[in-house]
Amino acid sequence: MTRRVLPAALALLVTVGACTSGSAPGFQPGADGAGDPYFPRYGNGGYDVAGYDLDLRYDPRSGQLGGRATITATATQDLSRLNFDLAHLTASRITVDGAAATSRADGNELVVTPAAGIPAGREFTVVVDYAGVPDQLENKALGNGGWIRTSDGGGIALGQPESASTWYPVNDHPSDKATLKLAMTVPDGLEVISNGVPGKRDSKDGWTTWRWAEDAPMASYLSTVVIGQYRITTGTHGGQPMIIAVPESMPATSAAARSLAMTGEITDYLASVFGPYPFDANGGVVVSDSRIGYALETQSRPVYGHTFFARDETNSGVVAHELAHQWFGDSVALRRWADIWLNEGFATYAEWLWTEHAGGETAQRQFERSYASFDWRQPAGDPGPERIFGAAVYERGALTVHALRRTIGDDAFFRLLKTWTSEHHDGNADTAAMIALAEKLSGKDLDAFFQSWLYGTTMPPVP
User: Fold this and answer.
1) Which domain holds residue 385?
2) Which residues contact 140 (CB under 8 A, 6 or more apart)?
3) SS3 for 35-80, per residue?
4) Phi first, then psi: what are they for 170, rounded to 5°?
5) Per the database record, which ranges form the Peptidase M1 membrane alanine aminopeptidase domain (predicted)?
C-alpha cells in the first residue's frame, strides 16, 4: 500500500460442510480471532480456507448486495463451531457439506454451528446465502475502509488491514490465504473490475454478469471489486492478461492513464530484480473518490487513488511501489501485522531502485537524504497497531533494506531478493525468516544489525 490504507467491513452468508455424525467429545469451537497481537479478532481459528467462490448481484439504486458465497476449507482441529468475519450483511441460509447449519451474528462475526462436528484434517464446504446494504468498517486510528457506494452508480470494496468482510464472509487475516472466484451481476452499462483473470461475460434482461478468477492464494485484504463507469484497456504482457481501468471521467491521455501504461515496463524491471512476476494477470485500476487517498496492492491489479495523478504529471513511482508489492506483500504475505515493514520497506526501496533505473537519483543518494532527516524514535519492526502505516514502516523500512545491502554486499543482497520471493512464493513469512535467510546467504551474524535498524530508538551507524 502507498501512504495510508483503510479498514473495511461487510456482511455475508455462508454454508459449511463435511461433518461427522454427532459432535463427539473433544470437539471445540474455533477461535473468534487468528491470534494476531495487533488485531486479536481479525480472522478466525479452527480451519484453513482453500477458496472463496462468490456469485453476487449489486443494485446501485438501492445499494443492495446479495448472493451466495461457497467456501471450501479444511478443519485444523476437531471443530464443533466456526466463525467467519462479516459486517453489515445478513445471512439467510447456511449449509455445511449440504446439511443445514445454524448461525447467529456476534458483532462483525458470523457464528456457524454445523449439524455435526468436523474432524481435524477434514475438507468441508460452507455455503452462505446473504444480503444487505454493505458499508465501511470504522477504525478511529487507521481510518475507514471496506465497501464504498460511489457517485457514478457503482461501488468499491477496498481497504487494509481489513476490508473483505464488508462484502463476503471470510477468514479476514493474511495468514489464511485463499483463491477467489467472483461472478458479479450489475445493471448494463456498468463495468466490474476485480482480481485475476477475466472470464466469460453474460447479459440478460438489462443485467450483465462479469467474472474474474484469482487462482493464486491471496490474503483477504488484497481482494477487491470496483464497479462503475470505467474505460477498460485489455491487452497482454508476457503472455498474460494486462487489464487497466481508468474512470471515464478522466481523459484518455490523463496522467493516470499514462502512468498505468508503464505497468508492463516497470514489471519487467522489477522481475529482473525480484524474480519472475508471481501471478497470472497484471494491470491496475484508478478510482476517483475523495474517500480513497491512497493506493493499495490488490493482488494482480493494484488500485490507485486519483490524487496520485492530480498534478497531471506521470507518476511512475507509485506504480513501482504497488507492483513491487506483488512480490513483497502479496505472493509473500505476512504472518502477523507487526512485520508489515517486510511489505512496505521493500516496496519503498523498489521505488528507489526504479528511480535510479529510470535516470533519477541513485538509491544511495535517496538513502542519504532520508537517513539524515529521519526521526529514529519510532521502530519499524514492531510499530504498534496504530502505526502500521506510519513513516517508520515505509521509510525506516527502506533505510534498513539499503543498509542491509551495504552490510552484506550486492551479490548476497540481490540473491537474497530472488531467493526470498522464490522460497516463500504463494506463502507467508516473517522477520525471523528474513534474518535467517540473510545470514545464510551472507555468512554473517546479523542479529545486532537488525536490532539496531528495525527496533532501536537512536540513529544507527551507516554500514
Assistant:
1) 340-455
2) none
3) CCCCCCCCCCCCEEEEEEEEEEEEECCCCEEEEEEEEEEEECCCEE
4) -155, 155
5) 275-453
The set of long-range contacts for 263-266, using a CB threshold of 8 Å and a minimum separation of 24, is 263/237, 263/319, 263/323, 264/237, 264/238, 266/316, 266/319, 266/320, 266/323, 266/354
Q: How far apart are CA 396 and CA 434, in angstroms?
A: 16
Whether 101 and 241 map to the same domain: the answer is yes
Q: Which residues contact 25 (CB under 8 A, 6 or more apart)?
A: none
Contact status, residue 363 vs residue 320, Cβ threshold 8 Å: no
| pLDDT tens digits for range 10-23 | 333 333 333 333 45
| Spatial contact of 297 and 221, defined as CB atoms under 8 Å apart | no
pTM over 0.70: yes
Cβ-count burial of 21 within 10 angstroms (0-12 exposed, 13-18 middle, 19+ buried)? exposed
**Looking at the predicted structure, is the pLDDT value of residue 9 above 80?**
no
76, three cell numbers = 485444523
C-alpha cell at 67: 448472493
Cα separations in angstroms, 408 against 42, 70, 297, 328: 37, 48, 29, 20
Same domain, 176 and 290: yes
Sign of torsion over alpha carbons 434, 439, 445, 449: negative
Residue 389 belongs to some domain of the structure:
yes
Radius of gyration of the chain (CA): 22
Q: What is the pLDDT of residues 21-69, one digit of tens each?
A: 345 778 999 999 999 999 999 999 999 999 999 999 999 999 999 999 9
Domain count, the chain: 2
Q: What CATH number does residue 50 fall under?
A: 2.60.40.1730
Cα–Cα dist 322/71, whole Å = 28
Q: How far apart are CA 228 and CA 427, in angstroms?
A: 33
* Rounded CA separation 180/195 (Å): 8
